[in-house]
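Saturday, quiet lab. Running sequence design on the structure tokens for the scaffold JK sent over.
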């Protein structure tokens, strides 16, 4: 049984690198209940074997990816989920290793590394198709009255406030209208809310900065990482914030805190 619940989400840009350098362990300093990671780039057979020793008290699950893949998601959880899946209703995207769905008694948690949509390894049509499958799946969950939390790297800056110098940024991947409309559908048609905006309506915070040109030091970034919560969870959100002091990845962790009704 959960009451207070803290979840952290982080695109780690390579799990083995963050783990070996001791950067990943830091996310457990605040005693989170669940840690979701994206862009692990790590096949199952390359996951470190001493995770239970180094991170005691947590079970873990990872999606399968091929060596050299830029995808991969994983979850660390104090409470073992009652079920873990790596696809939506069909197997269309299962082999990409982008999806991890953890079922708890209190909610369904979707940890997703959404496609970037960039050639040559991807495409914008593929990205939009992935979003359509995601929205269809979430719609079915809401029809069942499930509490739903979606976290991860969405690879979309939803609003102009979510990127640096929007008036000077030409249309490009991550801010095309077709992409932003998918998040609008999540909010306007399925009644989800961006948990960060529930608590920080006008705050300018970013979660991803290019490695080049001291972008992070100069805060030249985009907000691409989110927690979205279903309508029946929005009153339970007590905090949601970014953690820019975590280094290593080109993304920073984000956290969500909830007080769940029992």
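Result came back. Writing it out in full:
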């Amino acid at each position: 049984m959960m009451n207070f619940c803290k979840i952290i989400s982080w695109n780690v840009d390579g799990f083995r690198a963050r783990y070996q350098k001791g950067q990943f362990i830091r996310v457990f300093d605040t005693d989170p209940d669940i840690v979701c990671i994206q862009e692990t780039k790590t096949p199952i057979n390359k996951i470190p074997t001493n995770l239970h020793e180094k991170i005691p008290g947590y079970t873990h699950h990872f999606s399968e990816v091929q060596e050299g893949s830029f995808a991969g998601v994983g979850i660390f959880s104090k409470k073992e989920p009652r079920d873990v899946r790596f696809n939506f209703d069909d197997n269309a995207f299962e082999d990409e290793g982008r999806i991890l769905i953890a079922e708890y008694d209190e909610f369904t948690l979707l940890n997703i590394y959404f496609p970037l949509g960039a050639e040559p390894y991807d495409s914008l049509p593929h990205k939009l198709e992935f979003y359509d499958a995601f929205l269809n799946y979430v719609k079915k969950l809401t029809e069942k009255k499930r509490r739903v939390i979606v976290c991860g790297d969405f690879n979309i800056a939803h609003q102009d406030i979510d990127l640096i110098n929007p008036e000077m940024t030409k249309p490009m991947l991550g801010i095309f209208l077709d992409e932003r409309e998918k998040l609008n559908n999540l909010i306007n048609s399925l009644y989800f809310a961006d948990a960060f905006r529930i608590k920080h309506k006008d705050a300018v915070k970013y979660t991803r900065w290019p490695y080049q040109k001291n972008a992070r030091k100069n805060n030249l970034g985009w907000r691409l990482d989110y927690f979205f919560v279903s309508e029946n969870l929005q009153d339970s959100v007590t905090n949601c914030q970014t953690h820019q002091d975590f280094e290593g990845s080109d993304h920073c962790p984000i956290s969500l805190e909830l007080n769940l009704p029992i």
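Notes for JK: The helical segments are 15-20, 51-54, 124-143, 177-188, 195-199. Residues 4-259 form a domain with the Deoxyribonuclease I; Chain A fold (CATH 3.60.10.10). Ask whether to fix the surface positions before the next round.
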